[in-house]
Amino acid sequence: MCGIVGAVAQRNIVSVLVEGLRRLEYRGYDSCGVAVLAGGEPKRARSVARVSDLDAQVRETRLEGVTGIAHTRWATHGAPVTDNAHPIFSRDAVALVHNGIIENYESLREMLRGKGYVFVSQTDTEVIAHLIHSMYRGDLFQTVRDAVKQLHGAYAIAVVHKDQPHTVVGARQGSPLVVGVGQGENFLASDALALAGSTDRFAFLEEGDVVEITLDGVKIVDREGIHVEREVRTVAAYGGAVELGPYRHFMQKEIFEQPRAITDTIPQADQFDASLFGDRASDVFGDIDSLLILACGTSYYSGLTAKYWLESVAKIPTQVEIASEYRYRESVPNPKALVVVISQSGETADTLAALKHAQSLGHTHTLAVCNVATSAMVRLTGMSFLTHAGTEIGVASTKAFTTQLAGLFVLAVTLGKLRGHVDARQEAAYLAQLRHLPAALNSVLALEPQIIAWAEEFARKENALFLGRGLHYPIALEGALKLKEISYIHAEAYPAGELKHGPLALVTEAMPVVTVAPNDTLLEKLKSNMQEVRARGGELYVFADSDTRIVSEDGIHVIRMPEHYGLLSPILHVVPLQLLAYHTACARGTDVDKPRNLAKSVTVE
Ligand code: M6R
Predict the structure, then answer these.
(1) ∠ CA 140-145-146, rounded to 5°
(2) Judgement on whether residues 42 and 125 belong to the same structural domain of the protein
(3) Looking at 2, 32, 296, 586, which residue is catalytic?
């Protein structure tokens, strides 16, 4: 999704800005641009191709400057054409980049037209540039502080004015913005990752903050207009995180990183303890009577899986909701519920808004399961469990999902223990299973050659069905999501028992039906559902545990999973589905890491 980089230095910063955009590329974008203050006015280059094209342009035109801003745009208002690409100018004096959506842009546009401003883009962003230009009286910092009071919606902005050649001003409300602190130079970015290589010292801005960066200073005011300091933290882990290494795509690299990611995520201690979730957790866990899980996309599916664990292991009622639905519906708050937000990025707009909505309804027990320690969600919740997947670049989430599952299983066992449903013997068994997971994952990854053979066939299909039951229904959902988002094959997932209630009408010899078949209590039921598919000519592609006695025969293709993994089986069974989607997408020649229309971190509604 949209990305911002800004810099004030004594050196030419164009390469820093372009490199920053390159580091944000993985988030998805459809145009990009950079502007610098050069020779007393802003100059820019914009591209509707890739950042590499923008780089070629700035080299060819010798664009240079010591102060500048840059942007990757994911279109919301207006098509991805050059006129709509940021930076957006106002009367060749102001240059501005913006993440988010300005909801009252139409009324502002009418007001500004009345003042003689001519609009050349279809963006909501252009109103901010003209508004700042119209209000500017020699102090950009003050102007932005006044101007943002008129904006409704979500934004992170960075702006420069030709009359202040060594100043960049930023502001945030609902979209992240971070200050990178250098020596004799300072930076702004929507994600600290953009500035890896330039600095490892960051101040994370809070909602409503406005910031001015100059060569040797950073000034911040909060939403009340009070001058504040934001803690500067050293975050060293960003450097080098975006190297592809020997892999063809980041998604492939991230699938193969899962054994390491799980090892880093599961607790080192020899027991499950509330303190794994923060200092307050032991009090809070003793006070709760239910869970409300809020998340989007793949993170929502990890919540759905966790519901099975939480209700069977911890015997605690659990409700899982899509964040974008929960935030707008009337619900009945239960102050004794633990609200759990699950997110790779910790910045997903809908999940953040759902969390704030829950808090506004009086929910005080909040926990984030998240991959980014410095994210808004971790900062807004009272407790957190950090997954240690490492930076996930591929838009299709893989290692973030399996590490979330590991974290949520730890939560279920911890609650089960506290509530008297997990004894010492069971606790030791669960811990041993968790510790063995990386080895088990390596055995599943070794199935890749067999999955590649299936992918060649899937690449020629236009539709696919995914079936699972119980704990593995959310895994079927995740498998279908993976396939559709990167291969563009239409895929749907159903609990296998639902087939006969409608989707069976879709089954013909042309329909591949991917089946997740663990050796659990529902196996015999699942086998009956498979027969329903075969009777209609459907082709079954089954990932079957070794002891299921499901064998390959006419119309039934079987890949045997190396071992049966009990309650943790979803973490193993999702991996072949990730590989199937990945190799199918490769065979179809799609842009695997940056699928069309999608963004890595969805920071707008
Ligand atoms: O960063 P989050 O986990 O909050 O993101 C939620 C979804 O946008 C994300 O999982 C999305 O569905 C992925 N592209 C799925 O692969």
Answers:
(1) 100
(2) yes
(3) 2
